[in-house]
Design the sequence.
């Protein structure tokens, strides 16, 4: 499991070491890790000696890290320049940098555009303007410098701890931000590096241990690795039969949106569920059966199911009635439900804790609006997109159920406050029907997972997941499978565009390779 923390959590963990006078040692470890990563980046492109690096340094400890790292790089033969962005700089860091022969330029007295040109001409730019101590974003000349530099498109940007302007706790972004190729982060990954829009500015994230890791509290954000997902994936045994594997009831599609039903039913079928019972109008059912002859069409009274998927493409009175009826039947039987798209507006007053909502940003904004949260002003899609971590948590709290918010990074919030973030997909997945495929995969996993979720000695317990957060973990597994399937499918086309059908086509391959990984680790 990858864990991420708030800036405050990192500071709390550092405090005992700072109190015992080890602050300077921590900074040296951070700077060394940063310098090492710069060396790696330079060597991908050219030889180190004679290569140039410009560090943009703020006045806090983040600037100190950058200046110490640059002094180490100067000693390894790089040409180093520091642009001091504030009226002061970390004194020891600056002294070390000057002693190593680095060139110092002052932003205060210089022209931001000119200095941006200098920085853009170097092989690597280190962004050490603001770290976890930032309040808001870059301002004044530093903001101008960064805006200009971003426009010029530097060859390689390495961010120190976080890209300056990205909120380390939330991933909120205060523009302008210099988008990094690599972010080297210290002591623990910052939550803002695993949540959009911050994650989109961070590039590859490299964690440098500085000796505080054992002092960290429970993470703010978690990300399942391939190994974690493999452990949690349901798998059939010799004793399995189709009913014991899990049956999924699906209310999806409508006269108008036939494709949504086709996609989610087929995605569920290829994700390992024992059987799918489909409910919808005849026109949609014909298409569903043509694509997935393994599914059953039940026009009204459904047979027994272990979970429901309700909502993709649901439209019009007839199908909305089926959705409401399925909600009631799930409530009566205590069954888990995935609520997607057209069914999000039909939710009953109170939903049980084993239901999962899967909105995109626009749907989440509408949902939050309908909850009439006291004191909250109307939430727009743009609000959700700029603060997804905040709003997905809020929605989980207010509804009392797990909420999966779709995006480049998909966030899954449990009402307990535990949040997962998965980001294995590709931007090509922003295509019609992609969410229907995710809904099918999740429904399928839910129908298959019910028993494992309560097992005190099973994989969920082994990963330290409390019973109340296990539905969120199932949703995170679905998100990682979906993202990996998109990336795998796009790779077949050398990184080219995708259709939802292509994503779906890769799902069995992803499930197979994850399972194989799990098997190879057991051997
Ligand atoms: N405590 C330590 O010894 C360690 C700290 N580390 C580094 O220290 C950083 C945190 O250091 P700081 O707490 O000094 O914080 P920062 O380096 O983020 O900067 C805080 C300083 O910038 C000013 N400032 C805040 N917001 C600003 C804004 N929007 N525009 C302009 N100036 C602004 C503040 O007044 C303060 O002087 C971490 O991100 C990490 O890079 C690492 O070296 C690990 C060890
Ligand atoms: N830029 C992106 N990068 C990666 N994945 C994305 C991106 N944009 C969207 N996705 C994924 O694509 C899917 C889109 O779902 P949704 O918006 O419901 O589409 P639809 O309603 O057409 O099925 C989600 O799983 C989302 O996480
Ligand atoms: K920074």
Sequence:
């Amino acid at each position: 499991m990858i864990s991420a923390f708030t800036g405050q959590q990192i500071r709390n963990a550092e405090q005992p070491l700072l109190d015992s006078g080890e602050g300077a040692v921590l900074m040296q470890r951070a700077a060394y890790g940063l310098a090492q990563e710069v060396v790696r980046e330079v060597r991908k492109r050219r030889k180190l000696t004679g290569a140039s690096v410009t560090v943009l340094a703020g006045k806090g400890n983040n600037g100190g890290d950058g200046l110490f790292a640059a002094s180490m790089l100067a000693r390894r033969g790089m040409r180093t320049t520091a642009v001091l962005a504030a009226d002061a700089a970390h004194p020891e860091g600056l002294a070390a940098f000057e002693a190593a022969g680095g060139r110092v330029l002052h932003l205060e007295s210089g022209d931001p555009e000119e200095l941006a040109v200098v920085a853009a001409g170097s092989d690597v730019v280190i962004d050490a303007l603001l770290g976890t101590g930032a309040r808001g974003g870059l301002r004044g000349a530093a903001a101008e410098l960064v805006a200009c530099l971003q426009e010029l498109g530097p060859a390689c940007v390495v961010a120190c701890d976080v890209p300056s302007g990205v909120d380390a706790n939330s991933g909120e972004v205060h523009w302008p931000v210099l988008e990094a190729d690599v972010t080297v982060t210290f002591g623990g990954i910052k939550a803002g590096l695993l949540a959009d829009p911050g994650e989109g500015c961070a590039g590859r994230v490299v964690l440098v241990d500085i000796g505080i890791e054992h002092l960290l509290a429970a993470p703010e954000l978690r990300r399942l690795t391939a190994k974690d997902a493999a452990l949690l994936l349901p798998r059939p045994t010799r004793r399995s039969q189709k009913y014991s594997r899990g049956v999924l009831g699906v209310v999806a599609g409508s006269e108008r949106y036939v494709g949504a039903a086709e996609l989610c039913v087929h995605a569920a079928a290829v994700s390992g569920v024992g059987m799918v019972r489909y409910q919808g109008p005849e026109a949609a059912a014909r298409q569903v059966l043509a694509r997935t002859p393994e599914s059953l069409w039940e026009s009204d009274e459904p047979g027994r199911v272990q979970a429901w998927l309700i909502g993709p493409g649901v439209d019009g009175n007839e199908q909305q009635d089926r959705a409401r009826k399925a909600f009631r039947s799930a409530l009566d039987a205590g069954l888990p439900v995935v609520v997607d798209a057209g069914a999000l507006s039909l939710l009953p007053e109170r939903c049980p804790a084993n239901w999962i909502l899967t909105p995109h940003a626009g749907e989440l904004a509408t949902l939050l609006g309908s909850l009439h949260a006291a004191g909250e002003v109307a939430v727009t899609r743009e609000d959700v997109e700029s603060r997804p971590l905040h709003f997905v948590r809020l929605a989980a709290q207010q509804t009392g159920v797990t909420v999966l918010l779709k995006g480049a990074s998909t966030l899954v919030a449990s009402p307990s406050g535990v949040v997962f973030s998965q980001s294995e997909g590709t931007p090509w997945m922003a295509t019609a029907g992609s969410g229907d495929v995710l809904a099918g995969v999740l429904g399928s996993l839910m129908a298959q997972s019910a028993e494992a979720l309560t097992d005190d000695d099973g994989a969920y317990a082994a990963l330290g997941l409390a019973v109340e957060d296990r539905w969120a973990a199932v949703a995170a597994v679905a998100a990682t499978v979906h993202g990996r399937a998109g990336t795998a499918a796009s790779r077949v086309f050398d990184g080219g565009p995708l259709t939802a059908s292509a994503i779906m086509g890769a799902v069995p391959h992803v499930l197979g390779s994850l399972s194989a990984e799990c098997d190879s680790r057991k051997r």
